[in-house]
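Handout, section 3.2

Students often ask what a structure token actually looks like in practice. Rather than define it abstractly, here is a full record for RNB domain-containing ribonuclease. The first block is the sequence as you would receive it.
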Amino acid sequence: MKALHDPQGILKQGLDAIRSEFAVPRSFPPQVLAAAERAANRAPTQHVDRTDLPFVTLDPASSTDLDQAFLIERTGPDLLLRYAIADVAWFVEDGDPVDVEAWHRGETLYLPDGKAGLYPPVLAENRASLLPDGPRPAIVFAVRVDPDGEARLEGVERAVVRSRAKLAYDSVSSADLPEPFADLASRIAAAEARRGAARVDPPQQEVERLAGDRFALSFRPMLASETANAALSLATNLAVARFLLDHRTGLFRVMAGPDERAVARLRQSAHALGLNWPAAVDLKDFERTLDARDPAQAGFMLAVRRAGSGAGYAPWHAGAEPWHAAIAAPYVHATAPLRRLADRYVIRAALALAQGEQVPDAVTQAFDRLPDVMARADAIAGRIERAVVDLAETVMLHGREGEVFGAIVTDAEGASARIQLEGVPVIARVKAADARPGQTFPVRLEKSDPATRQLSFALA
């Protein structure tokens, strides 16, 4: 899970239990590994040579499954982003053992100490990954970004590319990057603000050891290089979404915004964390003021992430415009095919249409099947993420049984109340008859058991 870091291995025993509970695969069936080995030797024959272009990648230093490489050029007032995406479909054919296993998995599952990949490592971390150790087959999207940050797809082609450098978020300098990199990120951010987008990128949490047997959860905000790099994927996914909509096809990422009840809970969470959220300011505008370097504001960003109704996938249908509330625009996933099954089919559709061809029947049929498959995969990933957070919270509070915390009610139903601890990024439940949202009272920690990931509070 990318949202939590455990460099000292404090959570190892609990993570092993989570893997067993959720049947997280530790490897691939032999026939899948054998098929992947054969596919890895497939030489690109339908690709133009773009190895002269100075592509680079930008990812966490330890990453080896590199989906994207990029270069950016100025063309008059516009910026031209060439975004090379791993050509997974070149190695994985419809119905082969690797494809069947990918449909079973849906997406890569992340835990703080490792991952269960969507594809075998010989592909995901070697031949299909855009590593700088040789030419790689890719799908190159040409995306034009105008001064207002509007992104438009100009072309899609299969190409062989060679990355010049594997850059890392924590060590990259502006001199390593294409000159317009920061300008492109700024344009995309400005366009988001005009649309009223409300993407929340919570900081990563890290488990750290304190004196004795005490632990804490600290926050590591996203680095500026991470935020800017995300703009490249955002611009491409927006451009591809518009392109597919124009052709009346596609698979879209859709999400409704938080309902009134969720927003009311968030206002109580903000109050519990000591944040000033004026009544006249809506959630989207308040989110844009948050600073992930502040622990209280970082905790609220996590609360926002958990408050949404969740995103899903929907194929294009006449008369129903797909909408992503957080992006405030139609949106697709097309830039991480090594990690998400859906991306491979969105890419295939965009490539076919850009080449003046019909979308393959296999892709159109996949668009109808993928929402259920991806929903199941997202649900498993979400349950694992929740379990990891629960584990981290119980480890942090273990040994503090009997301690009294201030709490504020964010939601209440019957004799049960959902509470946000004051000054601590923990949401829990407590028995409290007739509790009302916004009410504050002290609670005593009765139990914090890392083995069962259970927290128990009682009114103090």
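Discussion prompt for tutorial groups: The first strand starts at residue 4 and ends at 5. How would you have guessed this from the sequence alone?
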